[in-house]
Automatic annotation (TrEMBL):
Pfam families attached to this UniProt entry: BT1
Keyword vocabulary terms for this entry: Membrane, Transmembrane, Transmembrane helix, Transport
Transmembrane segments: 59-78, 90-116
Keyword Transport tagged: yes
Domain of life: Eukaryota
Protein name stated in the entry: Uncharacterized protein
GO CC entries: membrane
Native organism: Blastocystis hominis
Compartment annotation: Membrane
Membrane topology according to the record: Multi-pass membrane protein
Record InterPro entries: BT1
Amino acid sequence: MLFLILRSLIPSTTTNIYAFLSYNVSVQPWQYNTLNISTSVASLLASFLYHRFLVGKNLLVVVVATTIAACLTGILQIYMVSGLFNGITLFWVCIVIMDINSIASQMAFIPLLILVSKACPTGYEASMWAIFFSLNDLAGSMGGKFVRVRGKREL
């Protein structure tokens, strides 16, 4: 459970990309909503892909593969900030990066949910899920506060 809290405490790609868009690219308010809708659809797609292709597979392999995919997304962020995507609208690059990260994160999160549900005693699943998601939300809020305390950094 501590691993899950620490995993959620780390600032996400979304935090970094929103900061980049806010400070370096002039975006309209509707574009932030487009990013949110796009990542929600990508998460839904990831749930479908997991259910269709990865149910019954070794959970360790799934977690490792999705962690590697998330690391590759981090490399794309470095390329974006360093200017290697010049000539392409950075807003669309952000959408692609966030969608890839959404899919990887959701596909890494589902096996963790499965492990938590297998670990809890029969009849206590609802309480365990409530605790799990409460801690996940708390860690996400703490990660956001961490970024806020650090202040604006030049990208």
